[in-house]
Predict the 3D structure of the following.
Amino acid sequence: MPQTLARQNGHKVYLCTGRSKAELTDDIKKIEFDGFIGAGGGYIEEQGKLLLHKKFDLADLSSIVHFFKKEGIGYYLESNDGLFASDTCIPEIRKQIFKGLAKTDDEYQKRESELQFFFDLLLPEKPVSELTSVNKISFMSEHIPFEKVKKAYEDKFTILHTTVPLFGENSGEIVLRGINKETAIRFLLEHLQMDKTHTIAIGDGMNDYEMLQFVHYGVAMRNAKPELKEVADYITGSPDEDGLLHFFNQHGLT
């Protein structure tokens, strides 16, 4: 693993993701990191120690859930305790990822296999009063435009398009205002008493935009959105091309 070799060479390596801790698979957990930034910047761990955890207020959460139920929008509430999904969540996701595909198609089988682990993570919804550690909300709909959700909540929260293209163009995420990967990195650097001249960040989604703009050296994967590539200092290969490994090797990190 390039991350392991880089750490052996004295570099600190952090996993920085939009996912909540409950979404980390066993394969990811086996990789040794110095810390973890999750929920798009709302959760930070350093050497296993919790530094920051920003969570939704229950009144706000109740308002959002009520709106989604009224509009028939599928959603799941992300927390370290699990991903709590509405009854309409999986049906809405399946409508999008299998649109235009027959069950006999190879692509259908490929997508089914790749996403089964995710479906297995989704837990039945709980009453809002029991959900005290929700740090991000994902939503998806075949018929309600993304812009309608954005208009309803953009005054109080940050509304982003989904980082999973297969979920469809009306899918998105609701993130606490003022939270992103850049703010998390700033917080971590202050805790470590380090300067950003020592930072490199690698990303492929638009929730990496602020991060790549902020760090000393920003790297976009080849499969990244064009807007992200524009603010990157370097473009590496896609995950299928072992882009991370090649970047670490080419830049003397391993």
About this structure: The chain has a mean pLDDT of 93.
